[in-house]
Amino acid sequence: MFQDLLTQSATIQEQQTSNVGGVVQKTWNTKYTTPARLVANGGSMRKGAEDLEKYTRGDFTLFLSFYPDITEKMRVHMDGEPYEIVFVAKVMGRQNYTHLELQLNKITA
User: Fold this and answer.
1) CB contact at 8 A, 64 and 8
2) Could you give the angle at the alpha carbon of 87 between the alpha carbons of 83 and 88, nearest 5°?
3) Residue 30, CA distances (Å) to 3, 54, 97 in order
4) CB neighbourhood size of 62 (10 A)
5) DSSP of 57-73, one letter per residue?
6) Is the sign of the CA dihedral 16, 88, 57, 39 positive or negative?
7) 60 has a pLDDT exceeding 90
8) Which of 9, 34, 75, 103 has the most CB atoms around it within 10 Å of its CB?
9) pLDDT tens sequence across 63-106
Protein backbone atom coordinates (compact mmCIF):
# COMPACT_ATOMS: atom_id res chain seq x y z
CA MET A 1 0.00 0.00 0.00
CA PHE A 2 1.19 3.53 -0.82
CA GLN A 3 0.96 4.78 2.78
CA ASP A 4 3.37 2.05 3.93
CA LEU A 5 6.09 3.57 1.72
CA LEU A 6 5.88 6.94 3.49
CA THR A 7 8.51 6.22 6.14
CA GLN A 8 9.85 9.77 6.64
CA SER A 9 8.31 12.96 7.98
CA ALA A 10 8.00 16.22 6.04
CA THR A 11 6.93 19.65 7.23
CA ILE A 12 5.15 21.79 4.64
CA GLN A 13 5.57 25.49 5.36
CA GLU A 14 3.97 28.62 3.96
CA GLN A 15 5.43 32.11 4.09
CA GLN A 16 3.74 34.78 6.18
CA THR A 17 4.56 38.48 6.11
CA SER A 18 3.99 40.96 8.89
CA ASN A 19 4.70 44.64 9.36
CA VAL A 20 6.42 45.36 12.66
CA GLY A 21 7.20 49.05 13.19
CA GLY A 22 7.30 49.71 9.46
CA VAL A 23 9.64 46.79 8.79
CA VAL A 24 8.26 43.91 6.71
CA GLN A 25 9.21 40.58 8.24
CA LYS A 26 8.84 37.25 6.46
CA THR A 27 8.53 34.00 8.39
CA TRP A 28 7.81 30.38 7.47
CA ASN A 29 4.95 28.81 9.39
CA THR A 30 4.08 25.11 9.50
CA LYS A 31 0.95 24.19 7.53
CA TYR A 32 1.29 20.37 7.62
CA THR A 33 3.54 17.76 9.15
CA THR A 34 2.93 14.57 7.24
CA PRO A 35 4.39 11.15 6.44
CA ALA A 36 6.41 11.32 3.21
CA ARG A 37 9.17 9.73 1.16
CA LEU A 38 12.06 11.70 -0.34
CA VAL A 39 13.91 10.25 -3.36
CA ALA A 40 16.87 11.75 -5.24
CA ASN A 41 16.25 12.22 -8.98
CA GLY A 42 18.39 11.69 -12.04
CA GLY A 43 17.93 13.40 -15.41
CA SER A 44 16.26 16.70 -16.18
CA MET A 45 12.81 15.94 -17.60
CA ARG A 46 10.04 13.51 -16.73
CA LYS A 47 6.53 12.72 -17.87
CA GLY A 48 3.91 14.15 -15.51
CA ALA A 49 2.02 11.41 -13.70
CA GLU A 50 -1.47 12.87 -14.09
CA ASP A 51 -1.44 14.19 -17.67
CA LEU A 52 1.80 12.89 -19.27
CA GLU A 53 3.07 16.38 -20.07
CA LYS A 54 6.74 17.22 -19.50
CA TYR A 55 7.56 19.30 -16.45
CA THR A 56 10.65 20.67 -14.80
CA ARG A 57 12.20 18.07 -12.58
CA GLY A 58 13.86 19.02 -9.32
CA ASP A 59 16.81 17.35 -7.66
CA PHE A 60 14.40 15.35 -5.45
CA THR A 61 10.86 13.94 -5.59
CA LEU A 62 8.77 13.99 -2.43
CA PHE A 63 5.84 11.57 -2.29
CA LEU A 64 3.02 12.34 0.12
CA SER A 65 -0.72 11.97 0.56
CA PHE A 66 -3.08 14.27 -1.34
CA TYR A 67 -3.24 17.84 0.00
CA PRO A 68 -5.02 19.96 -2.65
CA ASP A 69 -3.79 23.32 -1.32
CA ILE A 70 -0.01 22.68 -1.48
CA THR A 71 1.58 25.00 -4.07
CA GLU A 72 4.95 26.05 -5.44
CA LYS A 73 4.85 29.12 -3.14
CA MET A 74 5.41 26.86 -0.13
CA ARG A 75 8.53 24.97 0.95
CA VAL A 76 9.38 21.64 2.54
CA HIS A 77 11.54 21.07 5.61
CA MET A 78 12.97 17.58 6.20
CA ASP A 79 15.77 16.32 8.42
CA GLY A 80 16.85 19.88 9.23
CA GLU A 81 17.07 20.89 5.55
CA PRO A 82 14.80 23.32 3.64
CA TYR A 83 13.68 22.57 0.04
CA GLU A 84 11.93 24.79 -2.47
CA ILE A 85 8.95 23.29 -4.28
CA VAL A 86 9.48 23.69 -8.04
CA PHE A 87 6.47 21.66 -9.22
CA VAL A 88 3.44 19.98 -7.66
CA ALA A 89 2.06 16.95 -9.54
CA LYS A 90 -1.36 15.67 -8.50
CA VAL A 91 -1.40 11.95 -9.22
CA MET A 92 -4.70 10.50 -10.37
CA GLY A 93 -5.94 7.03 -9.50
CA ARG A 94 -8.85 5.35 -11.25
CA GLN A 95 -11.48 7.76 -9.97
CA ASN A 96 -9.77 10.53 -7.98
CA TYR A 97 -6.44 11.96 -6.89
CA THR A 98 -4.42 9.54 -4.78
CA HIS A 99 -1.27 11.45 -3.78
CA LEU A 100 1.15 14.26 -4.61
CA GLU A 101 4.62 14.14 -6.09
CA LEU A 102 6.52 17.34 -5.32
CA GLN A 103 9.63 18.25 -7.30
CA LEU A 104 12.13 19.82 -4.89
CA ASN A 105 15.50 21.57 -4.91
CA LYS A 106 17.53 21.90 -1.72
CA ILE A 107 17.88 25.50 -0.55
CA THR A 108 21.52 26.38 0.05
CA ALA A 109 22.75 29.46 1.90
Assistant:
1) no
2) 100
3) 22, 30, 24
4) 24
5) --SEEEEEE--TT--TT
6) positive
7) yes
8) 103
9) 999 999 999 999 999 999 999 999 999 988 888 888 999 999 99
